[in-house]
Amino acid sequence: RLLVDAQQRARVHDDELREALRHAGVVTLADVAWAVLEPTGRISVLRGESPPDPWLVADLDRESRPGPGQP
Question: DSSP letter string over 7-55?
Fold first, then answer.
């Protein structure tokens, strides 16, 4: 599920997101667990069906994190 409001607030254009997904080897959006806009401006892509390890996302704003059972 794309968080379009968050994407617009961060001023990340669709082309930038598509480029980051391609660089991560993503071929379908279903492969993406999270796409994170890092403080450096880089987009990190976490792939997989399992929720990410809490340590990997501990520094993220809680409002931007999906709730239990949400991708």
Answer: HHHTT--HHHHHHHHHHTT-SSGGGEEEEEE-TTSPEEEEESSSPPPGG
